[in-house]
Amino acid sequence: MDHIRDGGLGDKPIRIEEIASSLQISTGYALETFQKVYGISPRKYLSELKLHEAKQLIHQPDLSLTRIATMLGYSSLAHFSRQFRRWTGMSPSEYRQTVGGIHFFE
């Protein structure tokens, strides 16, 4: 089942089934409509939001990578680092060193 975290930073997962139910539509129709509107699945959309937020936070040198992982809802820095490497091909620390203080808009 797809879960969407509130804003990517909250602790309470929001289930797509709950959203569909509150709108009085089927889960399948909700997923199909989301796909049509955004061109990607809710899971992929959430992943892209988290990647964008991670990149923004990594640009802030006063935030430790452990703190960033926690802010994004990861249980450990290791888990966040593995996911970030899947997204970008580099670790969060490598990304931080590569981009330095330069801020890119995506």
Rough outline? elongated
Tell me the fraction of residues in β-strands, as a range.
5-15%
Number of strands: 2
> How many strands, what sense, and barrel or not for the largest sheet?
2 strands, antiparallel
- In helices, the fraction of residues equals 55-70%
Short note summarizing the structure:
By secondary structure, the chain is mainly alpha-helical.
How would you portray this structure in words?
The protein has 106 residues and is mainly α. It is built from six helices and two strands, in the order ββαααααα. The protein has a two-stranded antiparallel ribbon. Strand 1 (3-5) and strand 2 form a beta hairpin. Helix 1 (16-22) packs across helix 2 (27-38).
What layout of secondary structure does this protein have?
Elements: E1 3-5, E2 13-15, H1 16-22, H2 27-38, H3 42-58, H4 65-71, H5 77-88, H6 92-99
Antiparallel strand pairs: 1-2
Helix pairs in contact: 1-2, 4-5
